[in-house]
Amino acid sequence: MSSTDAQPEVPRVDKDGQAVINPANVKGVRVSGKQWKMQKQPTRKSSHTSWDQRQKDRQTLESIKTRERELKEEQERERQEQAERIRARRAAKEEKERYELLKTKMHAKRVERLRRREKRSKLLKER
């Protein structure tokens, strides 16, 4: 064999055993190997879901929203009840303090009469 004989080119192989192709030899690929423009794909319609599936999805979404609304209403109701209990407790405390103050100024029996009279008038107002 002489030095002028053409030897067949041996393909280069990377670490994984895949053949390495020189980007300069491939048509449409830059010499640097970088693609500057994205490969364009033909436009396709989006995945079409059936009417039944869409109806089912809407129904599940609506049920989720309904459940969330119920939970929010329940939380709001509990919060309102707690606030009402606090208001009632404060009002009772204020009334008790007021009667204690009256006891220091007046006779105890007179304070008890006033308390009963105020309860009666309060009950009449609520009717």
Automatic annotation (TrEMBL):
Q: Which GO terms describe its biological process?
A: rRNA processing
Q: Which protein are we looking at?
A: rRNA-processing protein
Q: Does the keyword Kinase apply?
A: no
Q: List all Basic and acidic residues biased stretches.
A: 51-96
What does this chain do? Involved in nucleolar integrity and required for processing of the pre-rRNA for the 60S ribosome subunit.
Sorted alphabetically, the Gene Ontology cellular component annotations on this record are: nucleolus
Q: Does the keyword Nucleus apply?
A: yes
Q: Which family does the record claim for this protein?
A: Belongs to the CGR1 family.
Subcellular localization: Nucleus, Nucleolus
Tell me the InterPro entries matching this sequence. Answer: Cgr1-like
Record keywords: Coiled coil, Nucleus, Ribosome biogenesis, rRNA processing
Q: Which Pfam families match?
A: Cgr1
Primary location class: nucleus
Region (Disordered): which ranges?
Answer: 1-96
**Signal peptide positions (record):** none
